[in-house]
Amino acid sequence: MPGLYSVWMDGWERRLANRDKNRRYRPFDWGLEWLSGISLPGFHAEADGDPAAWMERFISAALANSACFYGYSTPNDYRLDGSHLTFSSPGGCPYPENNTVHADFFPAGNDRAVLVLPQWNAGADGHHGLCRLLNRFGITALRMSMAYHDRRMPAELERADYHVSSNLGRTIHAVRQSVVDARSCLDWLEGRGYRRLAILGTSLGSCVAFVTSAHDRRVGTGVYNHISMNFGDVVWTGLSTGHVRKGLEEGVTQEQLGRYWSIISPSSFFHLMEGRTTPNLLIWTRHDTTFLPIYSRQVVEAFRSRGMPHQVLTLPCGHYTLGQFPFNLMDGLAMCRFLAGNL
Protein backbone atom coordinates (compact mmCIF):
# COMPACT_ATOMS: atom_id res chain seq x y z
CA MET A 1 0.00 0.00 0.00
CA PRO A 2 1.38 3.44 -0.89
CA GLY A 3 2.02 5.78 2.01
CA LEU A 4 0.20 9.04 2.62
CA TYR A 5 3.03 11.08 1.08
CA SER A 6 2.95 8.97 -2.11
CA VAL A 7 -0.82 9.36 -2.41
CA TRP A 8 -0.58 13.12 -1.85
CA MET A 9 2.25 13.49 -4.35
CA ASP A 10 0.42 11.41 -6.95
CA GLY A 11 -2.66 13.59 -6.60
CA TRP A 12 -0.62 16.77 -6.96
CA GLU A 13 1.18 15.33 -9.97
CA ARG A 14 -2.08 14.43 -11.71
CA ARG A 15 -3.66 17.81 -11.03
CA LEU A 16 -0.69 19.53 -12.65
CA ALA A 17 -0.71 17.12 -15.60
CA ASN A 18 -4.43 17.64 -16.19
CA ARG A 19 -4.11 21.41 -16.52
CA ASP A 20 -3.37 20.98 -20.22
CA LYS A 21 -6.69 20.71 -22.06
CA ASN A 22 -5.34 20.90 -25.61
CA ARG A 23 -3.80 17.45 -25.99
CA ARG A 24 -5.01 15.98 -29.27
CA TYR A 25 -5.32 12.37 -30.37
CA ARG A 26 -3.73 11.82 -33.77
CA PRO A 27 -4.09 8.54 -35.72
CA PHE A 28 -1.19 6.17 -36.21
CA ASP A 29 1.07 6.80 -39.18
CA TRP A 30 4.27 5.05 -40.23
CA GLY A 31 5.61 8.36 -41.56
CA LEU A 32 8.12 6.69 -43.88
CA GLU A 33 8.25 9.78 -46.11
CA TRP A 34 9.99 11.61 -43.25
CA LEU A 35 12.88 9.14 -43.40
CA SER A 36 13.16 8.28 -47.07
CA GLY A 37 15.34 11.30 -47.82
CA ILE A 38 17.98 10.40 -45.22
CA SER A 39 20.97 8.78 -46.91
CA LEU A 40 22.46 5.81 -45.06
CA PRO A 41 25.10 3.30 -46.20
CA GLY A 42 23.50 0.03 -47.22
CA PHE A 43 19.93 1.34 -47.20
CA HIS A 44 17.76 1.80 -50.25
CA ALA A 45 14.52 3.69 -49.76
CA GLU A 46 12.38 2.06 -52.44
CA ALA A 47 8.90 1.06 -51.25
CA ASP A 48 8.17 -2.66 -50.97
CA GLY A 49 4.56 -2.56 -49.79
CA ASP A 50 5.43 -3.60 -46.23
CA PRO A 51 5.95 -0.53 -44.01
CA ALA A 52 7.05 -2.62 -41.03
CA ALA A 53 9.79 -4.30 -43.07
CA TRP A 54 10.82 -0.92 -44.55
CA MET A 55 11.07 0.60 -41.09
CA GLU A 56 13.05 -2.36 -39.78
CA ARG A 57 15.57 -2.06 -42.62
CA PHE A 58 15.91 1.66 -42.04
CA ILE A 59 16.40 1.33 -38.27
CA SER A 60 19.00 -1.40 -38.74
CA ALA A 61 20.95 0.79 -41.15
CA ALA A 62 20.64 3.87 -38.93
CA LEU A 63 21.85 2.03 -35.83
CA ALA A 64 24.80 0.59 -37.74
CA ASN A 65 25.68 4.07 -39.03
CA SER A 66 24.46 6.40 -36.29
CA ALA A 67 27.35 8.81 -36.91
CA CYS A 68 25.99 9.23 -40.43
CA PHE A 69 22.36 9.41 -39.26
CA TYR A 70 23.24 12.21 -36.82
CA GLY A 71 25.75 13.82 -39.15
CA TYR A 72 25.28 17.39 -40.43
CA SER A 73 26.97 20.38 -42.04
CA THR A 74 27.68 23.38 -39.83
CA PRO A 75 25.33 26.27 -40.68
CA ASN A 76 26.88 29.34 -42.33
CA ASP A 77 24.23 31.90 -41.35
CA TYR A 78 24.52 32.31 -37.59
CA ARG A 79 23.12 35.68 -36.50
CA LEU A 80 23.23 37.07 -32.97
CA ASP A 81 20.80 39.95 -32.47
CA GLY A 82 21.30 41.18 -28.92
CA SER A 83 20.94 37.96 -26.93
CA HIS A 84 18.91 36.12 -29.60
CA LEU A 85 20.74 33.64 -31.85
CA THR A 86 19.22 32.28 -35.07
CA PHE A 87 20.50 30.01 -37.83
CA SER A 88 19.19 27.58 -40.41
CA SER A 89 18.59 24.05 -39.15
CA PRO A 90 20.77 21.42 -40.86
CA GLY A 91 17.95 18.94 -40.19
CA GLY A 92 15.46 20.55 -42.56
CA CYS A 93 11.74 19.74 -42.81
CA PRO A 94 8.71 20.89 -44.84
CA TYR A 95 7.77 23.55 -42.25
CA PRO A 96 9.68 26.83 -42.78
CA GLU A 97 9.00 28.02 -39.21
CA ASN A 98 10.77 24.97 -37.86
CA ASN A 99 13.78 25.37 -40.13
CA THR A 100 15.02 28.45 -38.30
CA VAL A 101 16.65 27.53 -34.99
CA HIS A 102 16.20 30.00 -32.12
CA ALA A 103 18.44 30.16 -29.06
CA ASP A 104 18.88 32.64 -26.21
CA PHE A 105 22.38 33.58 -25.12
CA PHE A 106 23.32 34.27 -21.50
CA PRO A 107 27.07 35.08 -21.44
CA ALA A 108 29.17 34.95 -18.26
CA GLY A 109 32.54 36.12 -19.57
CA ASN A 110 34.75 33.01 -19.50
CA ASP A 111 35.39 29.88 -21.55
CA ARG A 112 32.77 27.68 -19.84
CA ALA A 113 29.39 27.23 -21.51
CA VAL A 114 26.42 24.90 -21.19
CA LEU A 115 23.82 24.19 -23.87
CA VAL A 116 20.38 24.06 -22.23
CA LEU A 117 17.56 21.95 -23.75
CA PRO A 118 14.20 22.35 -21.96
CA GLN A 119 11.32 19.91 -21.65
CA TRP A 120 8.65 19.00 -24.18
CA ASN A 121 6.24 21.89 -24.76
CA ALA A 122 8.38 24.39 -22.87
CA GLY A 123 7.49 27.99 -23.66
CA ALA A 124 9.88 30.46 -25.28
CA ASP A 125 11.10 31.62 -21.86
CA GLY A 126 11.37 28.12 -20.38
CA HIS A 127 14.60 27.61 -18.40
CA HIS A 128 15.56 31.29 -18.65
CA GLY A 129 15.61 31.40 -14.87
CA LEU A 130 17.97 28.43 -14.81
CA CYS A 131 20.23 30.14 -17.36
CA ARG A 132 20.44 33.24 -15.16
CA LEU A 133 21.24 31.03 -12.18
CA LEU A 134 24.03 29.39 -14.19
CA ASN A 135 25.40 32.89 -14.85
CA ARG A 136 25.59 33.46 -11.08
CA PHE A 137 27.82 30.39 -10.92
CA GLY A 138 30.08 31.87 -13.60
CA ILE A 139 28.81 29.70 -16.46
CA THR A 140 27.61 30.91 -19.85
CA ALA A 141 24.31 29.38 -21.02
CA LEU A 142 22.79 28.97 -24.48
CA ARG A 143 19.15 27.93 -24.32
CA MET A 144 17.95 26.29 -27.56
CA SER A 145 14.36 25.86 -28.69
CA MET A 146 14.01 22.29 -29.91
CA ALA A 147 12.24 21.33 -33.13
CA TYR A 148 8.58 22.43 -33.37
CA HIS A 149 8.76 24.35 -30.08
CA ASP A 150 7.69 27.93 -29.31
CA ARG A 151 9.04 30.18 -32.09
CA ARG A 152 9.55 27.14 -34.33
CA MET A 153 5.96 25.91 -34.08
CA PRO A 154 3.93 25.67 -37.31
CA ALA A 155 0.79 27.79 -37.32
CA GLU A 156 -1.60 24.82 -37.12
CA LEU A 157 -0.20 23.65 -33.78
CA GLU A 158 -0.95 24.65 -30.20
CA ARG A 159 1.60 22.24 -28.76
CA ALA A 160 4.87 20.71 -29.97
CA ASP A 161 2.93 17.66 -31.17
CA TYR A 162 5.14 17.03 -34.17
CA HIS A 163 8.17 16.33 -31.96
CA VAL A 164 6.46 13.45 -30.12
CA SER A 165 3.47 11.84 -31.80
CA SER A 166 1.94 8.65 -33.16
CA ASN A 167 3.66 9.38 -36.48
CA LEU A 168 6.72 7.13 -36.14
CA GLY A 169 8.87 8.64 -38.88
CA ARG A 170 8.13 12.26 -38.04
CA THR A 171 9.05 11.68 -34.38
CA ILE A 172 12.37 10.12 -35.42
CA HIS A 173 13.01 13.00 -37.81
CA ALA A 174 12.20 15.58 -35.12
CA VAL A 175 14.64 14.09 -32.60
CA ARG A 176 17.32 13.87 -35.29
CA GLN A 177 16.69 17.52 -36.17
CA SER A 178 16.95 18.61 -32.53
CA VAL A 179 20.22 16.69 -32.15
CA VAL A 180 21.87 18.24 -35.21
CA ASP A 181 20.58 21.66 -34.14
CA ALA A 182 22.15 21.12 -30.71
CA ARG A 183 25.46 20.16 -32.32
CA SER A 184 25.25 23.30 -34.44
CA CYS A 185 24.86 25.32 -31.23
CA LEU A 186 28.02 23.68 -29.92
CA ASP A 187 29.76 24.74 -33.14
CA TRP A 188 28.70 28.33 -32.53
CA LEU A 189 29.87 28.29 -28.90
CA GLU A 190 33.19 26.76 -29.89
CA GLY A 191 33.59 29.40 -32.58
CA ARG A 192 33.19 32.11 -29.94
CA GLY A 193 36.03 30.69 -27.87
CA TYR A 194 34.23 28.45 -25.42
CA ARG A 195 36.47 25.47 -24.81
CA ARG A 196 34.77 23.80 -21.84
CA LEU A 197 31.36 22.70 -23.08
CA ALA A 198 28.52 20.98 -21.25
CA ILE A 199 24.95 20.01 -22.03
CA LEU A 200 21.89 20.09 -19.77
CA GLY A 201 18.60 18.56 -20.82
CA THR A 202 15.25 18.16 -19.09
CA SER A 203 12.73 15.41 -19.91
CA LEU A 204 12.56 15.27 -23.74
CA GLY A 205 15.55 17.61 -23.67
CA SER A 206 17.39 15.04 -21.54
CA CYS A 207 16.97 12.39 -24.25
CA VAL A 208 18.13 14.80 -26.96
CA ALA A 209 21.06 15.86 -24.75
CA PHE A 210 22.20 12.27 -24.20
CA VAL A 211 22.06 11.37 -27.89
CA THR A 212 23.93 14.59 -28.68
CA SER A 213 26.62 13.83 -26.08
CA ALA A 214 27.04 10.31 -27.39
CA HIS A 215 27.73 11.61 -30.90
CA ASP A 216 29.74 14.71 -30.00
CA ARG A 217 32.84 14.29 -27.85
CA ARG A 218 33.13 18.04 -27.33
CA VAL A 219 30.54 17.69 -24.59
CA GLY A 220 32.69 17.53 -21.48
CA THR A 221 29.93 17.31 -18.88
CA GLY A 222 26.34 16.11 -19.06
CA VAL A 223 23.35 16.84 -16.84
CA TYR A 224 20.32 14.68 -17.56
CA ASN A 225 17.25 15.93 -15.71
CA HIS A 226 14.66 13.08 -15.83
CA ILE A 227 16.15 9.92 -17.32
CA SER A 228 14.93 6.83 -19.14
CA MET A 229 16.59 4.21 -21.30
CA ASN A 230 14.06 4.05 -24.10
CA PHE A 231 12.04 6.77 -25.82
CA GLY A 232 9.19 4.39 -26.60
CA ASP A 233 8.74 3.20 -23.00
CA VAL A 234 8.23 6.76 -21.77
CA VAL A 235 5.67 7.57 -24.45
CA TRP A 236 3.83 4.26 -24.00
CA THR A 237 3.57 4.36 -20.20
CA GLY A 238 3.73 8.06 -19.27
CA LEU A 239 0.84 10.02 -17.83
CA SER A 240 1.45 12.97 -20.15
CA THR A 241 1.45 10.93 -23.38
CA GLY A 242 -1.72 8.85 -23.05
CA HIS A 243 -3.18 10.62 -26.08
CA VAL A 244 -0.10 9.66 -28.12
CA ARG A 245 -0.30 6.03 -27.02
CA LYS A 246 -3.94 5.91 -28.14
CA GLY A 247 -2.81 6.52 -31.71
CA LEU A 248 0.25 4.28 -31.48
CA GLU A 249 -1.83 1.31 -30.34
CA GLU A 250 -3.56 1.33 -33.72
CA GLY A 251 -0.33 0.20 -35.41
CA VAL A 252 2.30 -1.16 -33.02
CA THR A 253 2.92 -2.85 -29.69
CA GLN A 254 5.15 -1.41 -26.98
CA GLU A 255 7.89 -3.87 -27.97
CA GLN A 256 7.69 -2.91 -31.65
CA LEU A 257 7.72 0.77 -30.75
CA GLY A 258 10.86 0.23 -28.69
CA ARG A 259 12.58 -1.25 -31.73
CA TYR A 260 11.48 1.45 -34.18
CA TRP A 261 12.39 4.27 -31.81
CA SER A 262 15.67 2.68 -30.70
CA ILE A 263 17.51 5.09 -33.00
CA ILE A 264 16.34 7.99 -30.79
CA SER A 265 16.81 6.18 -27.45
CA PRO A 266 19.75 6.57 -25.03
CA SER A 267 19.97 2.79 -24.61
CA SER A 268 21.35 2.43 -28.13
CA PHE A 269 24.34 4.69 -27.55
CA PHE A 270 25.92 3.82 -24.22
CA HIS A 271 28.74 2.11 -26.07
CA LEU A 272 29.70 5.47 -27.55
CA MET A 273 30.05 6.94 -24.05
CA GLU A 274 32.19 4.15 -22.59
CA GLY A 275 35.76 5.03 -21.73
CA ARG A 276 35.08 8.72 -21.31
CA THR A 277 36.25 10.32 -18.09
CA THR A 278 33.77 13.18 -18.22
CA PRO A 279 31.34 13.34 -15.28
CA ASN A 280 27.56 13.13 -15.61
CA LEU A 281 24.72 14.06 -13.28
CA LEU A 282 21.66 11.81 -13.43
CA ILE A 283 18.47 13.20 -11.88
CA TRP A 284 15.28 11.27 -11.34
CA THR A 285 12.23 11.56 -9.11
CA ARG A 286 10.70 8.85 -6.94
CA HIS A 287 7.09 9.68 -7.84
CA ASP A 288 7.48 10.30 -11.56
CA THR A 289 4.36 9.40 -13.55
CA THR A 290 5.91 10.24 -16.92
CA PHE A 291 9.45 8.85 -16.73
CA LEU A 292 8.54 5.89 -14.54
CA PRO A 293 11.14 5.16 -11.83
CA ILE A 294 11.74 1.63 -13.16
CA TYR A 295 13.12 3.14 -16.37
CA SER A 296 15.19 5.75 -14.54
CA ARG A 297 16.81 3.07 -12.38
CA GLN A 298 17.80 1.25 -15.59
CA VAL A 299 19.82 4.29 -16.67
CA VAL A 300 21.58 4.52 -13.31
CA GLU A 301 22.41 0.81 -13.44
CA ALA A 302 23.72 1.13 -17.01
CA PHE A 303 26.11 3.90 -15.94
CA ARG A 304 27.18 1.89 -12.88
CA SER A 305 27.70 -1.44 -14.65
CA ARG A 306 29.73 0.18 -17.44
CA GLY A 307 31.92 2.12 -15.04
CA MET A 308 30.89 5.46 -16.51
CA PRO A 309 31.57 8.38 -14.12
CA HIS A 310 28.34 9.76 -12.70
CA GLN A 311 26.56 11.21 -9.74
CA VAL A 312 22.90 10.58 -8.94
CA LEU A 313 20.33 12.95 -7.48
CA THR A 314 16.96 11.47 -6.50
CA LEU A 315 14.24 13.92 -5.48
CA PRO A 316 11.05 13.11 -3.52
CA CYS A 317 8.60 14.45 -6.12
CA GLY A 318 7.27 13.67 -9.58
CA HIS A 319 7.70 14.86 -13.15
CA TYR A 320 5.44 17.90 -13.04
CA THR A 321 6.03 18.65 -9.38
CA LEU A 322 9.76 18.98 -10.04
CA GLY A 323 8.84 22.33 -11.54
CA GLN A 324 7.22 23.45 -8.27
CA PHE A 325 8.78 24.98 -5.16
CA PRO A 326 10.80 23.74 -3.29
CA PHE A 327 11.79 20.96 -5.70
CA ASN A 328 12.61 23.31 -8.58
CA LEU A 329 15.01 25.23 -6.35
CA MET A 330 16.64 22.03 -5.10
CA ASP A 331 17.00 20.80 -8.67
CA GLY A 332 18.35 24.05 -10.09
CA LEU A 333 20.94 24.55 -7.37
CA ALA A 334 22.13 20.95 -7.65
CA MET A 335 22.61 21.23 -11.41
CA CYS A 336 24.45 24.55 -11.16
CA ARG A 337 26.74 23.34 -8.36
CA PHE A 338 27.54 20.19 -10.27
CA LEU A 339 28.42 22.11 -13.42
CA ALA A 340 30.43 24.69 -11.51
CA GLY A 341 32.49 21.94 -9.92
CA ASN A 342 32.97 19.73 -12.98
CA LEU A 343 33.01 21.92 -16.08
At a glance:
The protein has helices spanning 4-17, 51-64, 66-69, 128-136, 168-191, 204-215, 231-237, 242-248, 254-260, 270-273, 293-305, 327-342, and strands at 79-81, 84-88, 100-106, 112-117, 140-144, 196-202, 219-225, 280-285, 311-315. With 343 residues, the chain is of the alpha/beta class.
Present the secondary structure layout.
Blueprint: H1 4-17, H2 51-64, H3 66-69, E1 79-81, E2 84-88, E3 100-106, E4 112-117, H4 128-136, E5 140-144, H5 168-191, E6 196-202, H6 204-215, E7 219-225, H7 231-237, H8 242-248, H9 254-260, H10 270-273, E8 280-285, H11 293-305, E9 311-315, H12 327-342
Parallel strand pairs: 4-5, 4-6, 6-7, 7-8, 8-9
Antiparallel strand pairs: 1-2, 2-3, 3-5
Helix pairs in contact: 5-6, 7-9
Shape: globular
Cα radius of gyration in angstroms: 19 Å
Strand content: 5-15%
Number of strands: 9
Poorly predicted regions are: none
Helix content: 25-40%
- Please identify the structural class as seen in this structure: alpha/beta
Query: Order of strands across the biggest sheet?
Result: 1-2-3-5-4-6-7-8-9
Question: What summary fits the major beta sheet?
Answer: 9 strands, mixed
The SSE order reads HHHEEEEHEHEHEHHHHEHEH
Q: Enumerate how many helices there are, as a single number.
A: 12
Give the CA-CA distance, first to last residue. 43 Å
On the 0 to 100 scale, the average pLDDT is 96
Q: Your description of this structure?
A:
By secondary structure, the protein is of the alpha/beta class. Helices cover 38% and strands 15% of the residues. It has helices at residues 4-17, 51-64, 66-69, 128-136, 168-191, 204-215, 231-237, 242-248, 254-260, 270-273, 293-305, 327-342, and strands spanning 79-81, 84-88, 100-106, 112-117, 140-144, 196-202, 219-225, 280-285, 311-315. It has a nine-stranded mixed β-sheet with strand order 1-2-3-5-4-6-7-8-9, sandwiched between helices. A hairpin with a 2-residue loop joins strand 1 and strand 2. Helix 5 (168-191) crosses helix 6 (204-215). The mean pLDDT is 96.
